[in-house]
Amino acid sequence: MATDMKTRLARLRARRTPHPEDAWKWRKGADMEKAAEDQGFYRGHKTSLDTVKSKTDFQGIPVHIDRPKGFVMEGKGKDGPWKRQYRYDYGFIPKTDGGDGDGLDVFLGPDKTSKNAYWAIQHRDDGSFDEYKVMLGFNSRGEAKEAYCQHIPKRMLKGLVTIRIEMMKAMLGLSVGGFKKTAGPTILGFLDELESIGGVSL
Q1: This prediction's pTM
Q2: 13 lies in some domain
Q3: What are the start-end ranges of the H helices in the chain?
Q4: Considering the domain boundaries, does residue 105 fall inside one?
Q5: Exposure string (b/e) for 121-148, b if CB count within 10 Å is 16 or more?
Q6: In a domain, 84, yes or no
C-alpha cells in the first residue's frame, strides 16, 4: 500500500516546469487553441487570465487567486454567446496538477471553517475527462454543486466526491508533521472513488 500511495500522490503533486503563477501563460499557440476548443465556454475571454491577483490560505492550503469575486468573463461557445461574473474567488493550488496539466482549480466559498472539500469531476461534451475542480468553504454537497453550476454548465459535472480538509492536506503533503500512516486507507478510498466516477487515475 505504501508504494501504491507514493506513486499515486506523485501524480497529484505536480512536477510542472512552469512557475505556478503562470498557470495559463505557458499554454501557447496550438495548446491554448485546443484547450479553448475543448472548453468552449472559455473561448473568447476578454480579460487576461495570466496574472495572479492575490494569494490566500484556506486552513493551511495555499490558493492563488486569478479570478476574484466579481471577475467577468465573456465568450462564445456551442450554445452561443455567454457572460459570466464570478460569485466566489477562483484560483488554483500551486505546485499541483488538476488532471489537465494546470494547477488544481479551486472555488473559495464563504465559510472559512468548513470541514470538507468537495471535488468536482468535470467532463467534456464527448464524455472524456476534463479536469478536477475543488470546492472549499462550502457547508454541504448541495452548496458546492450549486456554486459549481452557477459558473460552469451543469452537463459538465460528472460527480462530486467529499474528503475532509485534514485528509486533503495530508494528501497534498501539507499536514503539520507530514503524512500520517493512518490517513492512507481513507485517501486511497477517496482516489478510487474519484476514478470510479470518471476521473483520471491519481
Answers
A1: 0.75
A2: yes
A3: 2-12, 29-38, 141-149, 165-171, 184-197
A4: yes
A5: bbbeeeeebbbbbbbbbbeeeebbbebb
A6: no
Angle of helix 2-12 relative to helix 184-197, nearest 10 degrees, comes to: 60
Q: Which domain range does residue 168 map to?
A: 2-21+51-70+90-197
Do residues 144 and 160 lie in contact, with contact meaning Cβ atoms separated by under 8 Å? yes
80 domain-assigned: no
What pLDDT score does 78 carry? 74
Mean pLDDT of successive 10-residue segments in the chain (202 residues)? 58 45 35 41 39 92 94 82 91 87 92 96 91 96 97 94 92 69 75 82 59
Closest CA to 125 of 157, 151, 99, 100: 157
- Look at residue 69 in the predicted model and tell me its pLDDT: 95
Counted domains in the chain: 1
